[in-house]
Here is the input.
Amino acid sequence: MKLENQVVSLELAKKMKDLGFKQDSLWWWVINQDSAFTDWGLESQRYIKYYKKDNKEYYSAFTVAELGEMLPVQTIIDKQNSYFDFYKEKQGWFCVANSKNYKGIMVKIAENLADAMAKMLIWLKENSYL
Here is the structure.
């Protein structure tokens, strides 16, 4: 399995940083603005201290394990007694909303587990559950 499928995507990593998630991970997305072309890639934690000094953007590329540790242990139930669950099908990761208004509505949220977990954390943060 490619490393890119085991960490949160660059797009979601940027959103998580914007929302204030602590930037502390084993892997990082690094964007080099110095070259004629903007390039990006994954780098291990040991190089980040050097990138912070350069003209580069960096975002925590949280692994599935790191994202799992960030998710709360309790069930999140909203004001309408809704709860949300996510699981894998052949086509990717889905979220199911169960409430009075949403009886088992299923929405595909991501191709891989890292992005599904990141989207769950982003939703929890944006809705003040974290």
Remarks:
- Residues 68-126 form one domain.
- Residues 78 and 129 are 9 Å apart (CA to CA).
